[in-house]
């Protein structure tokens, strides 16, 4: 008996000793040189001796302790570290849900607006230029807890409508289809008139991603048909935020898709998607000549290589795969950023997607409470965003040393300023060892003058600079989303597939809507509505 | 002597052989696919399947093997596998042998103490805190010490030792040997099957482990091979991408490089199998007969 008591005591003392180890504060060296520990988005690891890291440290007379936390297991590992009492000063956040959690746990502290205005006016100015009012989406419990993370740099891009031009010609269509009825005509001809000329009826009009275009024509985008990680779209309807998948228009879209399925126009393999493994954005069904239309991936996955002298593999992945298999087909691709419409009157554009993301920056309680250290950090950020030169220096490296512009002839015949690495930096391995990439977000710097890119010249005439595709207007993760979304997505996926394949009649859609609402959808609708009112008042 | 085979016998045999061949091919094909992909040149259309790809190249191997991260990962993995296996085998035998002796005081208590850990584990966070407070972070010890003893292996080894006749031990004792000498000179030489089995299990486990390295190792140079491989393989999958970094989506490792990395990380441990195979079956069989 006594032994047991002793044992229990010993265990509890040990436990206390383990859990008692508290936070340790970052050491400050004698000359006021602060050390900031931080996590960030990374595809590789940041080498502690990286040339770029040293350059930033020397420029601002600080030490940076970058924690290499693998991105795929990011939250899991970060949670472990937090549980062990290790809190980085600057915390990169992967999702809005995690942000809320760290606020609730008291790991992070709100950023005082006065301090931000006083110490980092340039950051606010850049935010105002590229994403006005964006900060309102980053308030939690009425206080600003995070700074946004986004990139304006990628140029005009969007979900592409991709046609096999050679197939269109083979079935006698000269004009790329624009209305949904023209789409339908082309799909039927692709199926029945042997567009690849092999004498076999082995082609289809569209597969899973092509359905996105049909839904878009009806004005809403359900989870179904999206590539990558599907996401429920919340869209504006009569001033309110509503869930796309349960809108009555979807019933009409499903009726049409069911008809196509019945007539063999829709690839029966649509259920498993167009990508059969490997890089996610590749549409195997399209590249292998099974379907003639796709919206798989993003526009830049279909873009031709930018410069005459660059390697063929720098084309967008889908185009590159098609070029290897069938160069004529790749040349004939008809790509547009404008989805089909029912009639000219129903065609419209949508407000551009805001740069609001789950990804963001937060700052530990210990850092924010150390006013001097936090102010110093904000001053550094302020300096980074003072000019494009400073930003480039910190983010990529010094111009003229690490990189520079060079004239290069594009495949479209024009000459552009291309960014090239210099000296050692040309070597990819050297670059990976010495890169860093310190920033909050990547702004456009309109005052530095616009640099023309082949991408924009390719994408803008195709309509990718405007938002023709319906897009998601909900920028946060709803409080009850984690609780319901897995079940709701399952209900939606099953109902949609059942209706399309004819396992359930089209009228089943009304039952699906009811089921969706009663399984938690109604709660989400209410929460989304409240949030929308809140941010728009 | 001619063996008599009835008609139904032949049919059954044929079915079994065909079935096994199919299963064999189904198991081999993924490996074959990766192997051919690793020798495929980048300009071959990758949306098609090939038994033998049209253009072969060793360029992928040159590129992967000259990657310094793969090289340092390889050294780290070999080191942890060797050290970890050595520690695990020593600890397992030293624990299992006493537990197999009938005259061990409180034998039941100690055995159940070992068995309980098979059902209750501390969980990730307490394990992390333990490793951290022991000061093992960022060292090879964080990878080999927490897995030094596996209860399952101890039980298997104990069962094996229990099958060794007591008289073997008694004869040594008559000659004046003490417990340690008995273990070293008598028991271990006759226990090679079980030692080989445990060695193989532990070695493969160490070779394939990555999560512990991911959480306990901070320095990039100390990461094990599997972590490096994971990073290369997962590049370009949706989960790994940051929507803010759209440009990055354009430049990811090709499928051929990924396949080569998989082959390079898997083959070394694969070639160990044939050498230990003969002990392996025997070891598990004998260990499992009596409880």
What does this structure look like?
The complex is a heterodimer of chains A (about 525) and B (about 290). With about 525 residues, chain A is mainly alpha-helical. Chain A folds into 2 domains: about 25-155 and about 355-460, D-Maltodextrin-Binding Protein, domain 2 (3-Layer(aba) Sandwich); about 160-335 and about 480-535, Periplasmic binding protein-like II (D-Maltodextrin-Binding Protein, domain 2). Chain A is about 40% helix and about 10% strand. Chain A contains 20 helices and 14 strands. Chain A has a 3-stranded antiparallel beta sheet. A 3-stranded antiparallel beta sheet of chain A has the order 10-7-11. Chain A has a two-stranded parallel sheet with strand order 1-2. In chain A, strand 1, helix 2 (about 50-60) and strand 2 (about 65) form a beta-alpha-beta unit. The radius of gyration of chain A is 27 Å and the shape is globular. Chain B is mostly helical. Chain B has 2 domains: about 5-55, no CATH class; about 60-290, MetI-like fold, CATH 1.10.3720. Chain B is built from 14 helices and no strands. In chain B, helix 8 (about 165-175) crosses helix 9 (about 180-190) and helix 12 (about 225-235) runs antiparallel to helix 13. The chains are: A mainly alpha (about 525), B mainly alpha (about 290). The interface between A and B is large, with 55 and 46 residues.
């Amino acid at each position: 008996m006594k032994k047991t008591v002793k044992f229990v005591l010993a265990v509890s003392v040990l436990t206390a000793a383990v859990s008692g180890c508290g936070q340790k504060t970052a050491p400050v060296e004698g000359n006021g040189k602060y050390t900031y520990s931080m996590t960030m988005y990374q595809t590789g690891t940041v080498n502690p001796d990286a040339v770029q890291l040293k350059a930033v440290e020397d420029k601002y007379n600080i030490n940076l302790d970058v924690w290499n936390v693998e991105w795929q297991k990011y939250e899991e590992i970060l949670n472990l570290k937090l549980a062990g009492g290790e809190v980085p000063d600057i915390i990169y956040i992967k999702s809005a849900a995690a942000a809320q959690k760290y606020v609730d746990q008291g790991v992070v502290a709100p950023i005082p607006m006065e301090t931000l205005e006083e110490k980092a006016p340039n950051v606010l100015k850049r935010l105002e230029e590229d994403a006005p009012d964006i900060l309102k989406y980053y308030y939690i419990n009425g206080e600003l807890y995070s700074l946004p993370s986004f990139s304006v740099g990628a140029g005009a891009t969007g979900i592409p409508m991709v046609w096999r031009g050679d197939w269109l010609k083979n079935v006698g269509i000269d004009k790329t289809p624009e209305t949904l009825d023209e789409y339908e005509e082309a799909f039927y001809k692709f199926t029945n008139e042997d567009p690849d000329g092999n004498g076999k009826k082995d082609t289809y009009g569209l597969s899973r991603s092509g359905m996105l275009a049909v839904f878009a024509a009806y004005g809403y985008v359900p989870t179904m048909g999206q590539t990558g990680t599907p996401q429920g779209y919340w869209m504006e309807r009569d001033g309110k935020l509503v869930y796309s998948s349960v809108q009555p228009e979807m019933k009409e879209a499903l009726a049409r898709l069911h008809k196509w399925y019945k007539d063999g126009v829709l690839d029966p393999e649509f259920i498993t998607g167009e990508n059969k493994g490997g890089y996610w954005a590749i549409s195997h069904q399209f590249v292998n000549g099974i379907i003639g239309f796709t919206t798989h991936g993003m526009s830049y996955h279909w873009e031709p290589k930018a410069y005459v002298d660059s390697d063929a593999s720098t084309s967008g992945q889908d185009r590159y795969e098609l070029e290897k298999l069938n160069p004529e087909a790749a040349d004939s691709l008809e790509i547009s950023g404008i989805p089909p419409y029912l009639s000219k009157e129903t065609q419209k554009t949508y407000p551009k997607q805001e740069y609001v993301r789950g990804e963001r920056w937060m700052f530990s309680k210990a850092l924010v409470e150390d006013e001097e250290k936090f102010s110093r950090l904000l001053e550094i950020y302020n300096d980074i965003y003072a000019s494009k030169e400073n930003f480039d220096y910190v983010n990529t490296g010094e111009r003229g040393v690490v990189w520079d512009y060079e004239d290069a002839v594009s495949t479209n015949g024009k000459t552009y300023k291309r960014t090239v690495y210099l000296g050692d930096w040309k070597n990819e391995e050297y670059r990976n060892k010495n890169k860093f990439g310190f920033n909050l977000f990547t702004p456009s710097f309109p005052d530095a003058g616009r640099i023309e890119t082949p991408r924009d010249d390719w994408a803008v005439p195709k309509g990718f600079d405007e938002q023709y595709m319906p897009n998601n207007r909900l920028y946060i993760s709803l409080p009850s989303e984690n609780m319901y979304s897995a079940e709701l997505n399952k209900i939606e996926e099953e109902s949609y597939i059942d209706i399309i394949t004819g396992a359930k009649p089209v009228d089943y859609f009304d039952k699906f809507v009811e089921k969706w609402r009663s399984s938690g959808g109604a709660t989400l609708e209410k929460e989304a509505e409240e949030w929308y009112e809140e941010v728009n008042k | 002597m001619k063996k008599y085979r009835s008609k139904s016998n032949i049919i059954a045999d044929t079915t079994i052989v065909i079935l096994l061949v199919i299963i064999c091919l189904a198991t081999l094909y993924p490996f074959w696919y990766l192997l051919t992909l690793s020798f495929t040149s980048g300009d071959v259309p990758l949306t098609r399947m090939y038994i033998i790809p049209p253009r072969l190249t060793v360029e992928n191997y040159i590129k992967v093997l000259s990657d310094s991260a793969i090289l340092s990962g390889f050294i780290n993995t070999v080191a942890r596998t060797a050290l970890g296996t050595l520690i695990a085998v020593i600890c397992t035998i030293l624990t299992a042998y006493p537990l197999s002796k009938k005259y061990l005081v409180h034998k039941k208590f100690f055995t159940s103490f070992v068995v309980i850990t098979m059902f209750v584990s501390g969980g990730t966070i307490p394990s992390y805190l333990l490793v951290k407070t022991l000061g093992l972070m960022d060292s090879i010890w964080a990878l080999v010490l927490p897995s030094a003893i596996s209860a399952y292996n101890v039980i298997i080894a104990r069962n094996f030792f229990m099958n060794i006749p007591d008289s073997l031990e008694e004869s040594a004792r008559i000659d004046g040997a003490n417990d340690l000498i008995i273990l070293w000179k008598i028991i271990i030489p006759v226990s090679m099957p079980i030692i080989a089995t445990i060695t193989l299990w532990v070695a493969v486990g160490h070779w394939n482990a990555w999560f512990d390295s991911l959480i306990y190792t901070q320095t990039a140079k100390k990461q094990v091979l599997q972590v490096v491989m994971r990073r290369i393989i997962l590049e370009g999958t949706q989960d790994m991408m940051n929507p803010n970094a759209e440009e990055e989506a354009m430049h990811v490792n090709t499928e051929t490089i990924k396949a080569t990395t998989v082959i390079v990380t898997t083959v070394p441990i694969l070639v160990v199998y044939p050498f230990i195979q003969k002990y392996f079956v025997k070891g598990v069989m004998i260990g499992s007969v009596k409880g």
